[in-house]
Structures are given as C-alpha cells and as structure tokens.
C-alpha cells in the first residue's frame, strides 16, 4: 500500500510542477534551442532548480558543469549550459524514480525493484557527468586527429606563395562537407572573423580559447610568433610543428585502436563459449544415453 502512495504522490508532484513550470517558463524555453535529450521535462526541472536555488547552493559543481558544457558545446551555451545540464540530471533522476516505482507496483509491490529504482536515481546523475567527460575526451581526440592535416595543407599553400590568412580561409572553404567536425566548426568561426577584418593575432587567440586544447595552443602560438617574419624560418617552424602533431596523431590512433580491440574481448569470449556449448552439447547428450 505504501508503494502505491509513493508512486501516486510522485506522479502528482511531477505533473503539477510540470504544468506550473510550463506556465512560468514556456515562452522562454521554446525560444531557445535545447541541446540535450529530455526536453519534455524541462519546465519541471527548471522550476525545481529555481525553487530550490540549486545553482546557488552548489557553486563548485555548477562551475565545473559550466566549464564542461562550454568546452563541449562552445560559447553558445555559456549562459544557460550549466542550468540546462542540471535540468537534464533532475529529469533523468525523476524518470528513474518513476519507472522504478511503477515497475515495483506492477510486480506486486516488490521492494527489491523499488530499491533498484532508488539506486538508479542516485547513480544516473554521476553516470551523466562521467559521460560528459567522455564526450569531451572524444571531441579533443577528433580535433587532434584533424589538426595535422589542416596544418599540412597550410604549409603546402604557404610554400606555394599564399599568405597565411588566405591559406587558412582556403583550407576551410575547400572542405564544406566537414561541418560536423568539431575542429572545422571552430575554424569556420575563425574564417568568419578573418573575413570581418579582425586581426589575425586576435583570431588565433580566440580560436585557442574556444578549443581549450594543448595541441591547438601550440599551433596558434607557433603561427602567432612566426607568421609576421615569413620566409624560410616560418616554413621550417610550421614543418617542425606538423611533424610533432603527426606523431601526436599516431599516438591517439594507436590508443583508439587498443580501446577498440579491448572492446572486442568480451564478444569474442562470448562467441567462444557459445561455440563450446554447441560442440560439447551433442557429446554430453550421447554420454547420458
């Protein structure tokens, strides 16, 4: 009986707060592009965050989430990214609590399923924060893999007599199909700034801040220190940096290959067990007869 009471209370609370949040934040939320998955519970989560003042109560956690979201999604989420992600955490935890309670009721008030739902409610936010770190790591790996190719193209164009600014613009405009690439998204912003006649030094500085990656900082600092000098020294500096970035790319590719091979271990063991069962089952049946 108590489980019915908890389940019904949860549903009433979520529905009431959802309706209240929709009345209060409906126009605001519809006018903004929400990058996460649980958008339909956003009014409820928004209301909970503002009512309990969660962002103010946990400033350290909020600042960490804000930095992670800005690193992953860019400055477009600098104002609302941490609040949106907190709303996503609350929505996911609420769904886990509701699903666990409903399944426990359908199973005949099974307290073990209810306990599993409570554990899932507590663990899900931690897994989502960890997934955010995983996405950041994958984005940075992709940028490291793509940066040497971009730099090699710039070196070729500069050797052919092109200026660094024009070489940068031509490299990006020559690959319109790579708009889903995290590196080329930032490069497109840099190209737009160059076309707006912003100084090349300022463009490099902003590009490095947006990427927030050591290899990109090394790339921009080398360009910034040598592009005004030009000549043979500039080409040599770019060529040396290109070799270093290619070595870094090889290291990342080797790491990704090792991760892929390790993921195949469990399927291979499972296939081996299945094959052994298929082979051994007839022999065991014959021995029993």
TrEMBL record:
The keyword Transmembrane helix applies. The chain crosses the membrane at residues 85-107, 113-132, 264-285. Keywords: Membrane, Transmembrane, Transmembrane helix. PANTHER family: INTEGRAL MEMBRANE PROTEIN-RELATED (PTHR35007), PILUS ASSEMBLE PROTEIN (PTHR35007:SF2). This is Type II secretion protein F.
């Amino acid at each position: 009986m108590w489980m019915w009471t908890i389940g019904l209370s949860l549903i009433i609370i979520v529905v009431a707060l959802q309706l209240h949040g929709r009345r209060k934040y409906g126009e605001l939320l519809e006018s903004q592009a929400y990058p996460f998955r649980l958008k339909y519970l956003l009014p409820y989560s928004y209301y909970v965050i503002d009512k309990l003042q969660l962002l103010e109560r946990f400033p350290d956690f909020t600042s960490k989430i804000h930095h992670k979201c800005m690193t992953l999604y860019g400055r477009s989420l600098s104002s609302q990214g941490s609040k949106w992600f907190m709303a996503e955490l609350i929505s996911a935890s609420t769904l886990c609590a509701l699903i666990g309670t409903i399944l426990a009721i359908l199973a005949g008030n099974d307290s073990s399923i209810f306990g599993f739902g409570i554990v899932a409610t507590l663990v899900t936010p931690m897994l989502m924060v960890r997934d955010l770190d995983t996405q950041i790591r994958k984005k940075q790996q992709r940028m490291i893999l793509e940066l040497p190719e971009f730099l090699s193209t710039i070196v070729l164009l500069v050797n052919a007599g092109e200026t660094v600014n024009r070489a940068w613009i031509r490299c990006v405009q020559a690959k319109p199909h790579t708009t889903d690439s995290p590196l080329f998204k930032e490069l497109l912003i840099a190209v737009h700034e160059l076309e707006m006649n912003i100084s090349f030094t300022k463009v490099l500085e902003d590009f490095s801040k947006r990427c927030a990656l050591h290899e990109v900082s090394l790339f921009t600092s080398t360009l910034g220190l040598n592009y005004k000098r030009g000549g043979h020294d500039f080409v040599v500096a770019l060529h040396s940096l290109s070799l270093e970035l290619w070595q870094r790319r090889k290291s990342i590719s080797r790491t990704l290959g090792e991760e892929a091979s390790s993921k195949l271990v469990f399927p291979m063991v499972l296939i081996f067990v299945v094959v052994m069962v298929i082979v051994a089952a007839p022999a065991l049946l014959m021995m029993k007869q």
